[in-house]
């Protein structure tokens, strides 16, 4: 069995940023394991621009953004293995992986960073009556076919779900010569970024039908038509609102699910809201020395925040290794959500371990306009910030300083509350 100080599972933007920052923090024994044939993760198929505005103050494509981090990994001569599937991670941090060259092999790690990303939810397909003809794709699969493999999935397209990948693919398919007839969204609000609705739908006159779903798929061998209907507040189709579309393709963009099968098997506690690991201020899971970052932790809207979060995980993993583990006695202050936020990352904060400035990220469960985001330490309000609009498709963030905690020793609860203006 070989030994590494830090083993990183996944060579997407999260894994790459974690590796670079762990190296810069002083750790030299780092291994990245990636099942794909190249580093960069899902960004390799995202050939549109708009990446990196926060990190590099430039508009990059997905592959360009990934390349910036791949170069940093190469410059530092960080070891990585491609086409290598991690099969299992034990609670003792033994990683079992497989590839053609080495066969099945084991690595003992001192620390592990989970950076496996997420996969697309296929739920949208399940409750739709009719046959299962060819022509139904997840939006991500269609993105890969068009952008990496050079195939067109279809010519007349209906998209179900208004997540960012669906919106991006509405524009992409149009640019490639297809006719995108409509994007239907079950919820009364879009699941994607506002900028993507403007740039990918409005700019191309593609209608977005909120509170609509697919109620029928026609075609036996190949999709020949789709019927949409409006839904009521309980998401039930309203009879009489059906509309037919002649089309040959249905793309599904119904959300992303963090890839946590490995995490669950090794005993990492998962948050039922995010489907990602429960983590403390160090992005450390309930298993000491096992950290998580990126989409495996919670689904991000911007890759810049993935890189920022993963860099913190890398620094913390490096500190864990150099200190020979974090001290066992911790004073974990839980973060409680009230009035709108569905979850926070991190879920707890130990003031003794936090950096000078800690980012707390969360998402709300519905569109909330003209409200305040307030933070309470016990009963005392320590932050109060007006937000004109908050939407489930856009991640919110706030910053807590170490000084705020120093002023309140013995704190036992932090509350993040959405309050009326
Ligand atoms: C289909 C799809 C399309 C997207 N399109 C866009 C877009 O157009 N614009 C945008 O801003 N964001 C997009 N995103 C969001 C984007 O995924 C994130 O911003 C970012 O890529 C997340 O980085 P990550 O490293 O956490 O995950 P990923 O980029 O998904 O990287 C995770 C890596 O882990 C590897 N891995 C997983 N399990 C294992 C294992 N068991 N063994 C070895 N390796 C493993 C995967 O192969 C992958 O390379 C998309 C996401 C998906 C799923």
What does this structure look like?
The chain is built from 9 helices and 27 strands. It has 421 residues and is α/β, with parallel strands linked by helices. The strands form 7 sheets. Strands 1, 2, 5, 6, 7, 8 and 19 form a 7-stranded mixed sheet that branches. A 5-stranded parallel sheet has the order 10-17-11-12-13. Helix 1 (13-24) crosses helix 8. The radius of gyration is 22 Å and the shape is globular. It starts with a strand and ends with a strand. The protein binds flavin-adenine dinucleotide (FAD).
Counted by DSSP, the helix tally is 9
State the end-to-end CA separation: 59 Å
Q: Would you report the number of β strands? A: 27
The outline comes out as: globular
Unreliable stretches covering 5 or more consecutive residues = none
Which secondary-structure class do the elements indicate? Answer: alpha/beta
Helix content: 10-25%
Biggest sheet character: 7 strands, mixed
List keywords for this structure.
421 residues, alpha/beta, seven-stranded mixed β-sheet, five-stranded parallel β-sheet, 9 helices, 27 strands, 22% helix, globular, binds flavin-adenine dinucleotide
Task: State the gist of this model.
With about 425 residues, the protein is α/β, with parallel strands linked by helices. It has 9 helices and 27 strands.
Q: Secondary-structure map with pairings?
A:
Blueprint: E1 2-9, H1 13-24, E2 30-33, E3 49-51, H2 53-56, E4 60-61, H3 62-75, E5 79-81, E6 85-89, E7 94-99, E8 103-114, E9 118-120, E10 136-138, H4 139-149, E11 156-160, H5 164-175, E12 179-185, H6 194-201, E13 208-210, E14 212-218, E15 225-230, E16 243-246, E17 249-252, E18 256-258, H7 261-266, E19 290-292, H8 303-322, E20 333-338, E21 341-345, E22 348-349, E23 357-364, E24 368-377, E25 380-390, E26 396-401, H9 402-406, E27 414-420
Parallel strand pairs: 1-2, 1-8, 2-5, 8-19, 10-17, 11-12, 11-17, 12-13, 20-27
Antiparallel strand pairs: 3-4, 6-7, 7-8, 9-18, 14-15, 15-16, 20-22, 21-23, 23-26, 24-25, 24-27
Helix pairs in contact: 1-3, 1-8, 4-5, 5-6
The protein binds flavin-adenine dinucleotide.
């Amino acid at each position: 069995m070989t030994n590494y100080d830090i083993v990183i599972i996944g060579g997407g933007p999260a894994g790459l940023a974690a590796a670079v920052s762990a190296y810069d923090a002083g750790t030299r024994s780092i291994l990245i394991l990636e099942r794909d044939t190249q580093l960069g993760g899902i960004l390799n198929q995202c050939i549109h621009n708009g990446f990196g505005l926060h990190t590099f103050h430039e508009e990059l494509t997905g592959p360009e953004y990934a390349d910036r981090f791949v170069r940093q990994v190469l410059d530092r001569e960080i070891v990585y293995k491609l086409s290598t599937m991690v099969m299992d991670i034990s609670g003792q941090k033994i990683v079992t992986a497989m590839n053609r060259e080495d066969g099945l092999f084991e690595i003992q790690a001192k620390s592990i960073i989970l950076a496996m990303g997420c996969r697309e939810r296929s739920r949208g397909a399940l409750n739709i009556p009719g046959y299962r003809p060819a022509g139904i794709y997840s939006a991500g699969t269609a993105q890969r076919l068009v952008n990496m493999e050079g195939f067109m999935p279809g010519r007349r397209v209906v998209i179900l779900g208004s997540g960012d990948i669906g919106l991006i693919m509405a524009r992409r398919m149009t640019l490639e010569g297809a006719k995108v007839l409509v994007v239907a969204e079950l919820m009364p609000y879009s699941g994607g970024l506002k900028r993507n609705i403007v740039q990918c739908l409005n700019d191309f006159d593609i209608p977005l039908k909120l509170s609509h779903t697919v109620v029928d798929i026609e075609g036996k061998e190949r999709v020949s038509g789709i019927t949409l209907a409006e839904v009521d507040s309980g998401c039930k189709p309203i009879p009489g609102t059906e509309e037919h579309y002649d089309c040959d393709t249905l793309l599904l963009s119904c959300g992303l699910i963090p890839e946590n099968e490995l995490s669950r098997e090794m005993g990492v506690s998962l948050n039922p809201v995010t489907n990602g690991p429960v983590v403390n201020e160090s992005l450390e899971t309930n298993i000491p020395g096992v950290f998580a970052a990126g989409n495996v932790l919670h689904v991000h809207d911007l890759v810049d925040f993935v890189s920022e979060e993963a860099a913190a995980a890398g620094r913390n993993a490096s500190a864990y290794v150099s200190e020979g583990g974090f001290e066992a006695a911790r004073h974990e202050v839980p973060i409680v959500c009230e009035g709108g936020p569905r979850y926070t990352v991190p879920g707890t904060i130990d003031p003794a371990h936090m950096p000078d400035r800690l980012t707390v990220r969360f998402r709300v469960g519905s569109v909330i306009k003209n409200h305040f985001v307030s933070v309470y330490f016990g009963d005392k309000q320590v932050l109060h910030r007006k937000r004109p609009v908050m939407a489930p498709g856009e991640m919110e963030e706030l910053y807590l300083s170490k000084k705020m905690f120093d002023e309140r020793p013995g704190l036992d609860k932090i509350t993040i509350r959405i309050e009326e203006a």
